[in-house]
Amino acid sequence: MSVTIYIPRDSGALALGAEKVAKAVEAEIAARGLDAKVVRNGSRGLYWLEPMVEVETDSGRVAYGPVSAKDVPSLFERGLTSGGTHRLSLGKTEEIPFLARQTRLTFERCGVIDPLSLDDYKAHGGLKGLGNAVATTPAEIVKTVTDSGLRGRGGAGFPTGIKWKTVMDTPSDRKYVLCNADEGDSGTFADRMIMEGDPFVLIEGMAIAGIATGATKGFVYIRSEYPHAVATMTRAVEIARQNGVLGVNVLGSPNAFDIEIRTGAGAYVCGEETSLMNSLEGKRGVVRAKPPLPAIQGLFGKPTVINNVISLASVPIIMDRGGEYYKDFGMGRSRGTIPLQIAGNVRHGGLFEAAFGLTLGEIVDEIGGGTATGRPVKAVQVGGPLGAYFPRALFDTPFDYEAFAAKDGLIGHAGIVVFDDTADMLKQARFAMEFCAIESCGKCTPCRIGSTRGVEVLDKIAQNIEPAKQLELVTDLCNTMKFGSLCALGGFTPYPVMSAINHFPDDFRPSPVAEAAE
Amino acid sequence: MAVINELKGLEGPLLPILHGIQEEFGYVPGESLPVIADALNISRAEVHGVVTFYHDYRNHPAGRHVLKLCRAEACQSMGGDAIAARLQQLLGIGFHETTKDGSVTLEPVYCLGLCACAPSAMLDGEVIGRLDAEKIEEIAAEVRL
Questions:
Q1: Cβ neighbours for A2, distance < 8 A, ≥ 6 positions apart
Q2: Which of residues 77-96 of B touch A (CB under 8 A)?
Q3: CB contact under 8 A, B116 and A342
Q4: CB pair distance less than 8 Å for B116 and A381
Q5: Range of the domain at B81
Q6: Is B26 contained in some domain?
Q7: What is the per-residue pLDDT across A16-67, written as a single tens digit (0 to 9) for each?
Q8: pLDDT tens-place string over residues A125-138
Q9: Which residue of A62, A268, A361, A367 has the smallest Cβ count within 10 Å?
């Protein structure tokens, strides 16, 4: 019987040498005349073990990692094709603690299947949600999504079902489903992983959104920094079209829906929904004032469902197993699961999908295993460049939209970046302002000018020029940016800045060494 | 201007056209702007505004290799700043600059989504993770060949 060997094609695995490993494995198979085939899967999300090679055995999939090309001959000598033991053996993939502790709903197939095999997708439960959607009414779909409690995973946390209902109820000759795949936040890679590892789930989710709201055209706006995701999604859309998943009769129903893939051009602000729509229309990616809501007047002035990749990719399982099933996970008003992305200076970095409610400390210390450098954790930035820095003192905060807001933070797209005790929080605060200055679209004054002034003021603190006065000034400036900016770029930049100042005041005081030298 | 004719039927064709031109020529030549404006029936000022808004579009050719180094927080937490300083020293250029021999252009990028294998970079579209002193020396030597 032919043996299947899985070697990821995920960007993270490729960045760590998966292509060389795949070539070496192919060469060994040929040299030994083995009856084995290589499948290029997505990543399971255990990045400290990538490239992780898996083999299908009688008792399930067995993993090895991190594998480099030079380990490949010895892996074959040790009986890789029958799951033989080797110093890189990780045992059964499903039993690796990092995976076993997760609740994989949105990511249940990611890293398991061949991303571009529609048969594989169907064999693992794919298209059941869309099948249910074409068999019911738009109002029922919207009700199921609303009942699930799913909230926008892009960061704002707006209830997805309510957004869809607005689009459904707005009459128009043309409507759009727009997928925001401009995942620009540092520390996040969930969108990239799903697009590279299970693209059909996103296509299915978008088709369901189309049927629910009466939209017939979908766009996926993917950032240009993700060329592999662009390639995989483009190919997956072609396959879906050839197999009647997309087209004039979705799964043989009278519903038409098609998708086009678009590439961004390196502007962070285009992750903001109105700016993204301008960009797609071929304009400068400047933010639009709201109202009008995109759900009423969005892309090309038409009613538009605009959702993040993970929100849309969570819909198929909700339509398959029901809103109640999904809602049973989570806490408070944060229902379902959230794909945490543990990154930066951390021992076990990767994707960890879990129900809401784990504490930040559990995530960083237990799941992440502390820092990669082995030094103490100083700060954790949650929610990307616009998210707050959390000190150890706040590690009891549960991962939940409201709980984080109560601590002057945000969960954003659930990226968690760990810093060890060598981090200089003044420098991090300055970077937040600098980043805002680089990426500001320029439409509103607090963001455009405030960010540049913010850099200058923080530089004065670093140079010890009237630091107390500067701190007062930067606090006032942050207040103006927070309440006076049009979108989250200027409005949330104060989060990293003020959290750094409030939680790490020592880093903003003149150093005693410098004082003594004067 | 086959690129323009092929793509102008799309809904919102300007970005795809600019991407197509940059892929063809390595940059967006100033001469192409009035041609695009004409084809799409918009003003030159509008096209200029769009080209200059986005970080990706260049108005002059890049080096033979383009090296994008991630400068965002996750990479900073793993010593990205030191890597950036060393790389600039090795190549003898700063960010947004091209070496005199035209071999390589160094650009900053804000996140490649490789945050669990930081610091990271992209060389001519190929991703590289867990950069260290040894890896960047290899890269610097490779691009100068």
A1: A35, A36, A37
A2: 77-78
A3: yes
A4: no
A5: 65-144
A6: yes
A7: 999 999 999 999 999 999 999 999 999 999 999 999 999 999 999 999 999 9
A8: 999 999 999 999 99
A9: A361
